[in-house]
């Protein structure tokens, strides 16, 4: 048995070594045989076949074929429940029941959202009433609705898919819906974990080793054009090899808008955003200093060129970071600096509030939009639930990493436009190009609690409803 195993390994050893060598060599020169795109095309056909067998919608929705029947059966019951819930605020001051001629204003789910989003306040006069203990139920309902389906929390969880992609993360029960799907899933597990994962880990190790020694060598060189050129090519080669370890298929659009210097801003889904963008250009980076393996990567990169890492807990660093950032972009010989103004990772569905700091430093910004295809794997990194190493292993054990990158035309701050308005305008353009939802919420809510001032808003609005003698 041992001899048979050795014979099999000896047979496959040479082809595997040649395949890995070819992948690294092609990545070094930025070339490809098109095998990854062909592989992604085959996966799409497999997913389409699974979709025909198991049509699936997102959680919380119903199948189209059953929706009409359910509406007919539950329509009257649903209307009755809605009337009971909203009856509190649909009564007139006189106490009589509203008829068809009465102008009744009913507060629905938008009532709670209106309060917290800062939209135009509704007119409260038609709702003047005496306090009743049952009033509490309405606000409890609004609170439950906010927990179930708010615009912030769901941006920090994995993006759900319309159909199963044969990965365990999404829609686990569908594994057992047919023998054919179960067999296909088992084959997929073997391919992903027994074939692709070892292959990808080997390429990642090669790319990381190359980064470690290349940046160490470049760090000993004197500042000048030679060091800048070596740093540029070393970074490009390194990140291209690392992208091959994810089976990344990246489509770049409008390369004529690529920045040569200045500030580049992009929406943020994962640390691998840096890998995707650095596949096509070389950037200096600014961001939070990390520990562990990610911190080791940061320190390795800093040996070759100037990056800006800061600690969130040290408020004094803000002014220092601003000065270093301004000094960086004022030097035309330095590489463009890449910034993720959201300050945290969002789940590839939305763009949240951009911090104004980078928009105060310069008048011109180079926006970039990144959009991943979730069918092949989840690129979102929830740093509060998993480490960077776990995140990388999750990506490497998925099917592939497929994304589109759009280089948008440079945007200049308008006359009399402040940094906040400029940041919002850039954010809206990135959201539009990437097909993402444009949200005004601060991504910092991912780790923060609700402010007392936000809690007081519905209290003030309710006080306007009550009759005061």
Q: Which helices and strands, and how do they pair?
A:
Elements (H helix, E strand, L loop, with lengths): L1 H27 L6 H19 L10 H27 L19 H8 L17 H14 L30 H41 L5 H20 L3 E6 L9 E4 L5 H7 L5 E5 L3 H11 L5 E3 L6 H13 L7 E3 L10 E2 L5 H5 L2 E9 L15 H9 L4 E7 L3 E2 L6 H16 L2 E2 L13 H14 L4
Parallel strand pairs: 1-8, 2-5, 2-7, 3-4, 3-5, 6-10
Antiparallel strand pairs: 7-8, 7-9
Task: Please tell me about this protein's structure.
The protein is of the alpha/beta class and 469 residues long. 49% of the residues lie in helices and 9% in strands. The strands form 2 sheets. Strands 1, 2, 3, 4, 5, 7, 8 and 9 form an 8-stranded mixed beta sheet that branches. A two-stranded parallel ribbon has the order 6-10. Helix 1 crosses helix 6 (179-219), helix 1 packs across helix 7 and helix 6 runs antiparallel to helix 7. The longest helix has 41 residues, at 179-219. The radius of gyration is 27 Å and the shape is globular.
* SSE class: alpha/beta
| Total strand segments | 10
* Helical content class: 40-55%
Give the DSSP E fraction (strand runs of 2 or more residues).
5-15%
Subcellular location: Membrane
Domain Phospholipid/glycerol acyltransferase: 262-373
Biased composition (Acidic residues): 62-74
Pathway: Phospholipid metabolism; Lipid metabolism
Explain briefly what this protein structure is.
The protein has 14 helices and ten strands. It is an alpha/beta fold and 469 residues long. The longest helix is centred in the middle third of the chain and has 41 residues, at 179-219.
């Amino acid at each position: 048995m041992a001899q048979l195993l050795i014979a099999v390994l000896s047979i496959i050893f040479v082809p595997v070594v040649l395949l890995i060598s070819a992948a690294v060599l092609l990545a070094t020169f930025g070339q490809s045989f098109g095998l990854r795109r062909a592989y992604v095309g085959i996966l799409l056909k497999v997913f389409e076949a699974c979709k025909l067998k198991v049509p699936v919608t997102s959680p919380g929705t119903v199948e189209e074929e059953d929706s009409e029947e359910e509406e007919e059966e539950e329509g009257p019951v649903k209307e009755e429940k809605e009337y009971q819930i909203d009856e509190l605020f649909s009564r007139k001051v006189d106490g009589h029941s509203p008829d068809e001629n009465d102008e009744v204003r009913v507060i629905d789910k938008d009532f709670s959202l209106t309060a917290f989003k800062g939209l135009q306040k509704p007119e409260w006069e038609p709702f003047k009433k005496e306090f009743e203990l049952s009033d509490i139920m309405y606000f409890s309902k609004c609170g439950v609705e906010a927990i179930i389906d708010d615009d912030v929390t769901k941006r920090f969880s994995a993006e759900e898919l319309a159909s199963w992609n044969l990965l365990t993360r999404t829609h686990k029960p569908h594994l057992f819906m047919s023998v054919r799907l179960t067999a296909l899933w088992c084959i997929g597990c073997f391919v992903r974990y027994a074939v692709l994962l070892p292959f990808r880990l080997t390429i990642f190790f090669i790319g990381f080793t190359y980064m470690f020694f290349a940046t160490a060598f470049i760090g000993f060189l004197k500042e000048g054009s030679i060091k800048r050129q070596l740093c540029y090519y070393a970074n490009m080669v390194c990140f291209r090899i690392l992208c091959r370890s994810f089976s990344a298929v990246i489509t770049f659009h409008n390369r004529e808008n690529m920045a040569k210097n200045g500030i580049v801003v992009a929406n943020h889904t994962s640390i691998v955003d840096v890998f995707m963008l650095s596949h096509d250009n070389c950037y200096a980076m600014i961001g939070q200093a990390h520990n562990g393996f990610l911190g080791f990567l940061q320190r390795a990169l800093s040996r070759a060129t100037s990056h800006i890492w800061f600690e969130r807990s040290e408020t004094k660093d803000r002014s220092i970071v601003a000065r270093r950032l301004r000094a960086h972009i004022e030097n035309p010989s330095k590489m463009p600096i890449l910034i993720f103004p959201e300050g945290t990772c969002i789940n590839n569905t939305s763009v949240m509030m951009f911090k104004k700091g980078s928009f105060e430093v310069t008048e011109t910004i180079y926006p970039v939009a990144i959009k991943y295809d979730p069918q092949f794997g989840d690129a979102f990194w929830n740093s509060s639930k998993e480490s960077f190493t776990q995140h990388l292993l999750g990506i490497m054990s998925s099917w592939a990493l497929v994304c589109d990158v759009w280089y948008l035309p440079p945007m200049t701050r308008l006359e009399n436009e402040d940094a906040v308005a400029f940041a919002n305008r850039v954010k809206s353009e990135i959201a539009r190009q990437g097909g993402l939802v444009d949200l005004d919420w601060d991504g910092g809510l991912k780790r923060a609690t609700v402010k007392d001032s936000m809690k007081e808003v519905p209290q003030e609005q309710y006080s306007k409803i009550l009759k005061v003698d």
